[in-house]
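Progress report, Aim 2. The chain analyzed during this reporting quarter is listed below.
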Amino acid sequence: MTENKLLAEVNGKQIFLSDVYELMQGMQDSERFNNEEGIHVLTDELINQELILKDAKEQKYDQDDEFIEELETVKDNMLKNYAMHKLFDNIEISDDELKEYYEKNKESLFSPVTYTASHILIEDLEQANKIYEEINEGLDFAKAAEEYSKDPSANNGGQLGTFPKGVMVKEFQEGLDSMEVGEISKPVKTQFGYHLIKLDDKKEKNTSFEEIKDQVRSTYEMIKRQEVYVELVNKLAKNAEVKKFY
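Predicted structure tokens for the chain:
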């Protein structure tokens, strides 16, 4: 464990190594200061801040109306965040609850199925059918995508990469589920137009509850947080005077 070394003292206020590390945590390029020279630079900055703070108090800036108003806003925001923290801190989730949630939602939320696919997006059904025939007659799918597809993936031969079940719109997903690997679909209509889909690969992995327990907990915890939040604000609203002007 690193010794919490005393680095400086300004008008009796001590600055420790831990203060420098705390300042580092809020910096995007903190790594470049994580050395002896960098620590000295940040220590100098903390000294400067203490000098500014002392001067501000001597100037009685903390008594300015503008400062007091801003301080109240900051305090209110901090209190709201603290109240949310206290609310969520009381949430308890048992393993039985998690397992029940997993069993009910494993197909839609924790799908072990992944697809690797490409597609060609066409606005007109007649043109989509024509391109489908050209591909069956020997036109390379990737070249057809580059030439005809209206989707940004056209620049990459229509490749969509690998993705889990459920992320595509319903009609596209149904098209995938009806296909064999290597197959090219007839035009599939979605809200975006007509798709020619090529299923490049499909993999299924039998993932147990224990293997993804942390992921399940994270997802379920978000749902529980939303539930207790909505329950609380609805309860509070009953005893409050709320006026909306929209």
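The first strand starts at residue 6 and ends at 10. The helical segments are 17-25, 36-58, 65-89, 95-109, 125-136, 141-148, 170-177, 213-238. These observations will guide the mutagenesis work planned for the next reporting period.
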